Amino acid sequence: MGKQIMSKKTAPKIAFNSGEFVVYPAHGVGKVADISKQKIGGTELELIVVNFDRDKMTLRVPLSKAESIGLRKISETSTMNEALGVLKGKAKVRKIMWSRRAQEYENKINSGSPVAIAEVVRDLYRRENLADQSYSERQIYEQALDRLANEYAICNNISAGDATKQLLDILSAEPVAAE
Q1: Structural domains of the chain, with CATH
Q2: What is the residue-wise DSSP string for 143-173?
């Protein structure tokens, strides 16, 4: 009589509330607009409705899938401080083809981890001479900086513009040697 069948009604470990900011790994910071029940294909699902105002986009995420897709609350200050520590470090650029590095950077950005995103920002940051940077490098850098700044802004209750400026101030300081 072997396996036990797991209940489909496993409650998510994280409780989301309407009005709070969350991070959806593939899209960045959004705001929970509503938690509602909806009948889809004969099954009633509990959905988290997340608005991304900047992208003028709304996602409906089944509550049961929220954890597996990585939907999470805004990072704690300690995690954000760890990400800022990464920004202060020396860039680590691997000597592999750009296409492979670009894929690694995209994966880090889409992980939703502020620390991984900070690694991308640090590695692609150019103190001067932006002409050295290809269009695709610049795009990935800006996407990573934008994601990190948006979460940093919510975490510190400041505007995204102020958050970006603070992150750039950290990046423009002399890097500290890795420990």
Answers
A1: 21-73 (2.40.10.170), 77-172 (1.20.58.1290)
A2: HHHHHHHHHHHHHHT--HHHHHHHHHHHHHS
**Contact (Cβ atoms closer than 8 angstroms) between residue 16 and residue 66:** yes
Task: Look up residue 54 and give its DSSP letter.
Answer: G
State the residue for tokens 């800022």: 84
- The answer for residues whose C-beta is within 8 angstroms of residue 51's C-beta and 6 or more apart is 30, 31, 33, 57, 58
For residue range 28-60, list pLDDT tens digits in order: 999 999 998 888 888 888 999 999 988 789 999
The model carries a pTM of 0.84
Nearest alpha-carbon partner for 116 in 138, 158, 155, 147? 147
Report whether 49 contacts 32 (CB < 8 A).
Answer: yes
* H-helix or E-strand spanning residue 19: none
d(CA 135, CA 141): 10
Q: What phi-psi label fits residue 99: left (phi over 0), alpha (psi between -120 and 50 degrees) or beta?
A: alpha
Largest CA distance in the chain: 68
DSSP E strands in the chain: the ranges are 21-24, 28-40, 43-52, 57-62, 72-73
